[in-house]
Structure formats: structure tokens, C-alpha cells
């Protein structure tokens, strides 16, 4: 029997520990740490410009108006807005007689708007003196536009202003008995005006100046008689 013991095998050779790889890896961009956002002058400039615009608008910019017809206009700030011109005050008279009568006729309106009338009508044009009502109504039947004025309220320049707006199928005459300074009349329709510059005058002519309400709209006043030519039947 062998008394010798077997020696344990020798330990493996010791190797030096492998160092960890470097961090960050080579070639990786190096961080410079947190950066602070750069401040620019643009926001400050915009704030200053915006404040100036608000100030200018509050002081000097005209206010915008929307008129009742839907159009847009401009007026200076603080100016009082005027009501739009319209034909709401036109008075209508329907079912008027068309009979021919001789002699004076008593009309309920002054100037008359229609009704029985003389067989003879008046010629178109401008008259310096009041014309006979009975003949004037015959003109209305023909689609004539009659503009009348109160002589104590309209001077010579005003008469010229009215004459310039008179349509070719129209009569301009003084009418001392009327209430308003200026009245415009067609058959069955009448509008009292505040004066020669009332903006409703051209509106009325545009709406009713072509015989829209007249029983004989295409007869015209042309070729009628004139008071200075003798007695009107």
C-alpha cells in the first residue's frame, strides 16, 4: 500500500482584470452640459409695435359703419350717424276716379294725387306760376312726375336745383297751399320732402318715375296745353 497522497493540481494562472471600455466611446460628441436658450429682441419689438397700433386705432382710425342697405361706409370717430334715406313715408292713394269733368274740382290733397280731372292735360316743363289742379291731375294719369314747391320756402337757386332733377316727363310748379317745402307726386303716390336737397327725391323718381302707378303710363305729358295759351277746358 502506498502511503503517499496525491497533491492537488496547481491553480490556473492569474490574468489581470480586463478594464471596462472608455465612456463615452471614442468619436462620440462630447456634451458641453445644459445650454441656456438664446434671447432675441423680436418678441420685445412685436410687443412695442402692437401697443402703438392699439393706441393709434383708439385715437385716429375712423369707425366703420354698416348702412341699412348692407353697404359699408366710414365716418370719423364720434360723428353722429344719420338715418338712411328711404321711401317709408310715401303715402298711397288707391281706387282713384279717372272721370273727365269740366269746371273746378275740390281735391282732398294739396297738391292732388289723382281723381276726376279736366279733359285737357298740361305740357311738360317748368312753370313760374301755379298750374290748374284739374289739368295737372290729367298729367298724373299719363304717368307724369309732378314736383311742387312752396314759393316762400324755396328761392330761385332752389328752383334751379329742382328743375335739374325734373325728368323729361315731368312738371315743376309752385304750389303755395301745400304744407311741406317740396312735394313730389305721381298718380296715387305722394311724398313730402324737407327741401330741395332731400335725398329721397331721386329715390322717389327712380321708384315711381316711369309711370308704374299711372293708368296711362305711356301717354306722356308731351303735347299738352299751356296756361298762357288761353283757357284750359
Q: What would you note in describing this structure?
A:
About 20% of the residues lie in helices and about 15% in strands. The protein has about 230 residues and is α/β, with parallel strands linked by helices. The strands form 2 sheets. The protein has a 6-stranded mixed sheet with strand order 3-8-7-5-6-4. A two-stranded antiparallel sheet has the order 1-2. The longest helix is centred in the N-terminal third of the chain and has 18 residues, at about 40-60. It is elongated. Residues about 60-85 have low confidence and may be disordered.
Overview in brief:
Helix content is 20%, strand content 14%. The protein is α/β, with parallel strands linked by helices.
Topology:
Blueprint: H1 42-59, E1 63-66, E2 72-75, E3 91-92, E4 125-126, H2 133-141, E5 145-149, H3 156-165, E6 170-174, E7 182-186, E8 189-193, H4 200-208
Amino acid at each position: 500500500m502506498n502511503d503517499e497522497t496525491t497533491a492537488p493540481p496547481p491553480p490556473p494562472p492569474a490574468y489581470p482584470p480586463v478594464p471596462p471600455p472608455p465612456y463615452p466611446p471614442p468619436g462620440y460628441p462630447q456634451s458641453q452640459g445644459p445650454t441656456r436658450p438664446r434671447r432675441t429682441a423680436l418678441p420685445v419689438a412685436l410687443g412695442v409695435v402692437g401697443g402703438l397700433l392699439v393706441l393709434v386705432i383708439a385715437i385716429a382710425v375712423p369707425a366703420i359703419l354698416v348702412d341699412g342697405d348692407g353697404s359699408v361706409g366710414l365716418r370719423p370717430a364720434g360723428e353722429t350717424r344719420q338715418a338712411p334715406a328711404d321711401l317709408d313715408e310715401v303715402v298711397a292713394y288707391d281706387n282713384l276716379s279717372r272721370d273727365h269733368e269740366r269746371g273746378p274740382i275740390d281735391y282732398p290733397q294739396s297738391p292732388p294725387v289723382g281723381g276726376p280731372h279736366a279733359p285737357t292735360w298740361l305740357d311738360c316743363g317748368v312753370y313760374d306760376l301755379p298750374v290748374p289742379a284739374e289739368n295737372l291731375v290729367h298729367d298724373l294719369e299719363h304717368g307724369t312726375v309732378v314736383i311742387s314747391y312752396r314759393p316762400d320756402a324755396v328761392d330761385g337757386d332752389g328752383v334751379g336745383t329742382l328743375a335739374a332733377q325734373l325728368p323729361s316727363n315731368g312738371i315743376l310748379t309752385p304750389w303755395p297751399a301745400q304744407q311741406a317745402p317740396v312735394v313730389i307726386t305721381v298718380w296715387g303716390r305722394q311724398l313730402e320732402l324737407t327741401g330741395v336737397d332731400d335725398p329721397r327725391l331721386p329715390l322717389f323718381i327712380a321708384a315711381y318715375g316711369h309711370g308704374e302707378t299711372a293708368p296711362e303710363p305711356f301717354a306722356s305729358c308731351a303735347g299738352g296745353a299751356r296756361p298762357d295759351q288761353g283757357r284750359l277746358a
